Amino acid sequence: MNTKSKNSQEDSGDDNLDEFVEFTTDIDPELVEICNDSGAQTKEAKAIYMTSRNIARKIVGDETPEDRIRQRCVISTGDPSVAEIMKFKNDPINSGVDAIKKGSPIFVDIRMVKAGITTKGHNCDVICVLDRDENAEIAHKYGITRTAAGFLKCKDEIEGAIIAIGNAPSAAITVCRLIEHGVRPALVVGTPVGFVNSAESKEMVRNMDVPSITCEGTRGGTPIAVACVNELVSIAHEKQECE
Length: 243
Known about the structure:
Layout: H1 3-15, H2 29-34, H3 43-60, H4 65-77, E1 86-89, H5 92-102, E2 106-108, H6 111-116, E3 126-128, H7 137-142, H8 146-153, E4 162-165, H9 169-180, E5 187-190, H10 198-207, E6 212-215, H11 222-242
Parallel strand pairs: 2-3, 2-4, 4-5, 5-6
Antiparallel strand pairs: 1-6
Protein name: Precorrin-8X methylmutase CbiC/CobH
Domain Cobalamin biosynthesis precorrin-8X methylmutase CobH/CbiC: 48-234
GO molecular function: precorrin-8X methylmutase activity
């Protein structure tokens, strides 16, 4: 088959996608119009987001910025009870929003968290600490996890930054050690998940004298960490548009 005929078939295939396209929710133009999530770019995505948001508002309430974070976490997990375990310490909303408006970097523990954070509505660099110790030299030298080693590698860069940990308790513990030695991130979002040190590491974060958003117990994970950061981006973007 020559290149021309191959390209012709490919183009033809793209032109015949109508039979595969089906909306997954009713597209209410009003929902599309009021959607304030910069990550939702198409009409269907905006309608899905706002339909979910309206359900979450009824579950969680909608009186404070903290409620907005809780709503997003409920949406991201499909679990209304997640709203009850979210904890906010030392004015984390304002601290996080200010950092985002300044374009402060966002350091994350794993690539899945980085992939989930929206690239729209902010100018912050999102940095996975695993990429700072690519050959795991520090991890092997000290016998620690790669995420913990990654934060040690970044210890001179996280002053005034946002830290988002969605997976690794060891990373949260390491960040707490750095804070004890004088490092002051703008915000720590700590939602590591699991049965080993997860609850304990999040309690350590809450006991630090820095702004933090965490969840209680063994539950947590990437979706919650990403939801917290993305909602802060939305709030920051709204504030910038009003200024």
